[in-house]
Amino acid sequence: MLPASAADALERGRALAQRVDNRPDGDDAASQGTMVLSEAGREPRVRKLYSFRREGAGGEVANLIRFTAPADIADTGLLTIDHADGSTDQWIYLPALKRDRRIPSSRRGGRFVGSDLFYEDLQDRDVDEDRHRWLREETLEGVKTEVLESVPIDPDSSVYGRRLSWIHPETLIPMRVDFYRPGEPRPFKRLRVYKVERIQGYWTVTDSVMKDLESQHQTRVVNEQTVYDRNLPERLFTNRALQDPSLEQRFRP
């Protein structure tokens, strides 16, 4: 049996993880943004994109990302369906191939369009897939946050051995997340949230950076416009819509 302090840390950790998961974020959302890929010695690569999210009545969450510029990535899209049972289906559409391609679970650690975001980072992870432990309170840029450790219960379910998250107490948004490879003592990747805004009553991340701590390559995502609760249709989150950008253009903010 766990000592009382250890048991309390697990109970408190899971409760915090559940509050983060339950954070209000609307029934659906449509966003316009910019992705900037940067590394030493090279000019930043700037990409324009739209993203859409819809929560189904049964607990399913669907996401569609579409790039519009520059020309070499325009119309490339990613469709992610997170099912209520915790499983995920992902497909990427590459215009040069004129078809979509399923992303197997073995590639969840692959870099999405050469960015520092893994395919796994673009999936919703169920709270009960991890063992959560509350570690401490820690001040981050003047804000007292709660540090949460999350370790996969099934090591094969994630490319990460563990994650440490610094949770903002009011917004319940992780302001920093450190990602660790299995068995390694130091993080190899870090997410930092630099700006959060309240839009239509929902706390929204509008500026964040995912950084590879080894290569120093980083991906900045700036959310320039978001509109919530537009009653986005289910047909927007289908393979047909993934392959045909014209089907989602009318829903762009």
From TrEMBL:
Residues 1-33 are annotated as: Disordered. It comes from Halochromatium glycolicum. Residues 9-26 have a biased composition (Basic and acidic residues). InterPro entries: TP_0789-like. Transmembrane segments: none annotated. Pfam families: LolA_like. Keywords: Lipoprotein. This is Outer membrane lipoprotein-sorting protein. Residues 61-243 form the Uncharacterized protein TP-0789 domain.
